[in-house]
Design a protein that fits this description.
By secondary structure, the protein is mainly beta. It contains one helix and eleven strands; from the N terminus they run H-E-E-E-E-E-E-E-E-E-E-E. 13% of the residues lie in helices and 41% in strands.
Length: 145
């Protein structure tokens, strides 16, 4: 009988611990989804980083830039991250650049004009400190003329 009381108390205690944890809610993601499409013109757009629950990013789970790579390819096009004079972080490759602003709460994406005649896309790869998942990553696709 004592075993059942101890087991019951343990289950009750663990249920309180796990229901009070907001691991998933604090995961940083890109507002509106990770897939961003641009037309063929040169453009600059900003995207907010929010928690998985949709609330403002609270910095409980930090994240870092890993690099830029093509989709379905394991090698990176670039992994060099520059720190700008105002503290923002910038990484760029050929036709696209990503600038991380406002203490990692905003990611600005800038694309050059697409005159290649073909659609092109890249993956902005990140890694967060809690689960080592690639969040908040962005897939940028730019259409051809």
């Amino acid at each position: 009988m004592n075993l059942y009381k101890i087991l019951g108390a343990l289950i009750l205690a663990l249920s309180f611990v796990f229901t009070s944890c907001d691991w998933v809610d604090n995961e940083p993601i890109i507002e509106g989804g990770r897939y961003k499409t641009f037309d063929s013109s040169a453009q600059r757009k900003s995207f907010r980083v929010v928690n998985a629950s949709g609330k403002r990013y609270n910095h409980k789970v930090d994240w870092d830039i890993v690099g830029i790579k093509q989709l379905r390819v394991s090698t990176f096009l670039t992994e060099k991250v520059d720190t700008l004079s105002n503290g923002d972080l910038k990484i760029s490759y050929d036709w696209v650049s990503f600038t991380v602003k406002e203490r990692k709460s905003v990611i600005e994406v800038e694309v050059q004009k697409n005159e290649t005649g073909q659609d092109r896309s890249v993956l902005f790869v990140t890694s967060n400190s809690r689960t080592q998942t690639h969040r908040p990553d962005i897939v940028v696709r730019q259409r051809a003329k």
